[in-house]
Amino acid sequence: MSDYEITPADYLPPVPEVTDFRIGCIGAGFIMADCHLVAYAAAGIHATGIASRTHHTAQQVAARHDIPSVYADYHQLLDNQDINVLDIAVPPDCLLEVIQAACQRDHLRGILAQKPLGVNLSEAKQIVALCQQAGITLSVNQNMRYDQSVRAATSLLRRDWLGDPVLATLDMRAIPHWMPWQQRQGWVTCRIMSIHHLDTMRCWFGTPQRVFASFRTDPRTQFAHQDGIGLYILEYDSGLRCQICDDVWAGPAREGAQADLGIHYRLEGTEGMAKGTIGWPKYPEREPSTLEYTLTKTGRWHQPRWNHVWFPDAFLGPMAELLTALANDQQTETSGQDNLQTMALVDACYLSAKQQQAISIDSVLNA
Ligand SMILES: NC(=O)C1=CN([C@@H]2O[C@H](COP(=O)(O)OP(=O)(O)OC[C@H]3O[C@@H](n4cnc5c(N)ncnc54)[C@H](OP(=O)(O)O)[C@@H]3O)[C@@H](O)[C@H]2O)C=CC1
Ligand SMILES: O=C1CO[C@H](CO)[C@@H](O)[C@@H]1O
């Protein structure tokens, strides 16, 4: 293989050597049942216990995934001293109380919490502080970083193959399935979906200095919401600009017109250019994400391909990283502390759209 080629180690997550941690799952909804547990099982990682709000839901998911212990509620799961790692996927406005209860137990070593880390930066800070005080390693499930194309692009950037980053754009034209609990938050897009794209830009380029965000409401969504279709410009002092368009309306495709759905991104640097697609909008069909790149040093297109997909395969990544970090007494890349910057960026987007002006991320982080 010539230089400047991507290999599986660049797009697949590490599989932890030590898998004897005992995982308790809190939440048994879509993401836990159809993504987390499916990806873990494929790697030989099996949860020990599960609890949901509704006992019957937990029983059904336990039966489907061969989970030996089902608890009537999450407090009972937390009482089991054998469980030392939590995998939490509950609505964001339920997360803080679950973490508060978890931090009162002294047998827990690690927590993987689904994004967003609470309803805002203030809650995220409380969650991070609670885990630090309890000596629990907290990691946030910002799993788009583990999408195979995103991860491969991260490798290109970390090796400097693209040179100095000049411009990055990401265009989402897709209709996600919305969860009923979003209605009580009044969020359609930014804190639920755009958070992935904002966090991915952070993974690629670090935290921007400022963001300008503009929202327009989504004509299909029946409940009152603050966001809807989201447009974002991220400004970096280096000169780099990132632009994200999250169009969750994507035209009247559900209303009878033809659909043209997908997610495309493009990264331009002084020494190369990469363009990718994210296959997730086709889920449950398995459409792998793609990446192509061209470099001044090679003068041709490089087109690595794989059969893995974000949903569900990439969900091994965040748990594998947490288990590896626990075994080595380290933090993960998506630690709670790191995620405060993603949460600050998201809060800055809502503030920017409301005030119709660019917002510095530091001003939100340090407010
Ligand atoms: N790519 C990603 O990383 C994705 C992340 N997510 C995140 O995962 C979390 C869970 O999402 P998802 O699984 O799709 O949601 P679901 O609605 O499918 O599941 C929610 C789970 O939380 C439980 N729950 C506890 N309290 C409540 C409550 N007050 N209202 C509603 N449910 C409650 C539900 O219990 P029960 O059903 O027993 O009543 C269920 O087990 C969210 O934070 C979401 O943002 C979601 C999708 C994709
Ligand atoms: O994180 C997410 C990614 O995709 C889902 C769409 O099916 C969203 O619901 C979501 O919260």
- General form: globular
CATH class of the largest domain: Alpha Beta
Helix content: 25-40%
What's the alpha carbon Rg, rounded to whole Å? Answer: 20 Å
Our count of helices gives 12
What structural class is derived from the secondary structure elements?
alpha/beta
> Ends: how far apart?
51 Å
| Structural domain tally | 2
User: Which sequence of SSEs, written as H and E, runs from N to C?
Assistant: HEHEHEHEHEHEHEHHEEEEEEEHHEH
What's the mean pLDDT score? 96
Describe this entry's structure for a reader.
The mean pLDDT is 96. The protein folds into two domains: 17-144 and 318-332, Rossmann fold; 145-313 and 342-365, Dihydrodipicolinate Reductase, domain 2. 35% of the residues lie in helices and 21% in strands. The chain has twelve helices and 15 strands. The chain is an alpha/beta fold and 367 residues long. The protein is globular. Strands 14-13-12-11-7-10-9-8-15 form a nine-stranded mixed sheet. The longest helix is centred in the last third of the chain and has 20 residues, at 336-355. 1,5-anhydro-D-fructose (NHF) binds at residues 176-177, 192-193, 196.
